[in-house]
Amino acid sequence: QWFVRYLDLKDKFRERSDEVKWLPEHMKIRLYNWIDGLKWDWCISRQRFYGVPFPVWYCKNCGDMVLADIEELPVDPRLEKNGRKCSRCGSSDLEPERDVMDTWATSSLSPRLALVPAGYFQSLYPMDIRFQGHDIISVWAFVTIVRSEIHDSLSPWKRIFISGNVYDPLGQKMSKSKGNVLEPANFIEQYGADALRFWASSSVPGDDIKIKEQDFVRGRRTVIKLFNAFKLLELIRSDKPLKKLNTPPSNMANAWILAKLNSVVKDVTDLMDQYLFSRARTQLDNFFWNTFCDNYLEIIKGYGNTDTDPALQDETVSVSYHVFLDVLRMYAPIMPFITEELYLSYPEHGKSIHVDLWPSFSEEFIFQEAEGKMDYIIEVIGKIRNLKTGNKMSMNTPLERVFINGNSRIIEEGRDIIMGMMKIGSIISEDSPEILVSLDEKQENK
Ligand SMILES: [Zn+2]
To answer: How far apart are CA 200 and CA 210, in angstroms?
Structure first.
């Protein structure tokens, strides 16, 4: 058997592991336990048919070991001996080594294998990050650190991200013998690859994750929602050119959506930087479904009409396209296909969304006053929605007259928005510390 001697290097391995940022941090303990428990050196030889061969022969005459020259590598001693003779007795009767290397002996070199042939070793080593499962911390992560210490006295990466395993819907490990294996290809066939990735993005670093079919359904619905939202933006824009975004916007809803976008960009970026994908996606889902689709798009739906003030129309088109583009950019790592498709449908677009810039937080988009007022208007609209639901009306049911108690100054500013979105003929407002909405008795009894 062939061994790599390393028991005397335990402290070094711990040191290298400390230089790496572990995501999540608590996974590091698994490696420490493994290092502390090591009792034997690393046996790298296996008696198997396939594997990387050891470049070694043995002299049948005197038993001496004959090593290949570095220039000869790679060489399979079972297939060739390159006219070699024993350096001790001169015999050419050589026996090849028949053992091959264990898989971890080669996979421990993965950073080098990726970088050296491409000529990037000097500039990119240690690598930024390793992604791997928790079940192979004591093998793949450990042996990569071993090789990096022995070859280069460096840690192999700056960070290591540990993912969990995928379990069946009941939380059981999948296996052929149990017959509970679910093939990703079937889900891709049924829901699309974006939906599969949407589900995968709900995983928490280090934790195992169950197959949850409702997440595929939600992913699929998000893909369709993105598609439909863009169709609506195109309808509002009709064939007008996309104008440059001018800030601050004159319209309250436009200022509000930019301010909300700004906050969500900050939150999603912070969470992504910490590799908390599922929490980042939740923030983004909330913004896209609730703030953007349920509220903003409902407000601007009618702005494509011919009777809309052209200046408001231009402003709304540029704001809505700007916000939606940032939504696409943030969804791009999670759902690469639909986002690319829609990105390439933009009037002016780059080569690919995946080489485009990540959205950035901008001081220019802080509109506290407009945001506060519009939040208030959204609250009023929420009350009117409840009122409609309570009276078993659809959201499109027109209302002749609605009484609104609350901050009548803000309600006045948002009058057009409230009336347009809730299909209201007239609003009568009165000052009150609390928001209260009510209908004409006549309508309520209809
Ligand atoms: Zn010999």
So the answer is: 10
**Of 365, 394, 419, which residue is a domain's last?**
365
| 91 in a structural domain | no
337-385: pLDDT as tens digits: 999 999 999 988 999 999 999 999 988 899 999 999 999 999 999 999 9
How far is ligand 1, taken at its centre, from the CA of residue 431, in Å?
A: 105
Instruction: Say if residue 135's pLDDT is above 70.
Output: yes
pLDDT digits (tens, 9 = 90+) for 287-339: 999 999 999 999 998 787 778 888 999 999 999 999 999 999 999 999 999 99
- pLDDT at residue 444, rounded to an integer: 59
- Distance from residue 255's CA to the centre of ligand 1 (Å): 86
Relative orientation angle of helices 415-422 and 368-390, to the nearest 10 degrees: 30
Geometric angle at alpha carbon 328, from 324 and 332, rounded to 5°: 175
User: Pick from 365, 384, 416: which residue ends a domain?
Assistant: 365
- Which residue do the tokens 């509970």 mark? 180
CATH number of the domain that 248 lies in?
Answer: 1.10.730.10
How many A from CA of 60 to the centre of ligand 1? 7
Tokens standing for 72?
């000869």
Please tell me the distance between residue 81's alpha carbon and the centre of ligand 1 in angstroms.
Answer: 14
Domain enclosing residue 122, as ranges? 3-54+99-163
Average pLDDT over residues 25-30: 96
Element (H, E) at 94: strand 94-96
pLDDT above 90 coverage of the chain, percent: 88
**Nearest in space to 243 (alpha carbons), one of 227, 253, 254:** 254
| pLDDT tens column, 139-171 | 999 999 999 999 999 999 999 999 999 999 999
Instruction: Kindly give the distance from the C-alpha atom of residue 96 to the centroid of ligand 1, in angstroms, as a whole number.
Output: 13
**Contact at 8 Å (CB) between 159 and 129?**
yes
Cα 226 to ligand 1 centre (Å): 73
Regarding whether 331 and 267 lie in a shared domain, the answer is yes
Same domain, 25 and 121: yes
Q: 7 alpha carbon to ligand 1 midpoint, in Å?
A: 32
Q: Could you tell me the distance, in angstroms and rounded to a whole number, from the CA of residue 53 to the centre of ligand 1?
A: 21
Residues 143 and 237 placed together within one structural domain of the fold:
no
The rounded distance, in Å, linking the Cα atoms of 79 and 60 is: 17
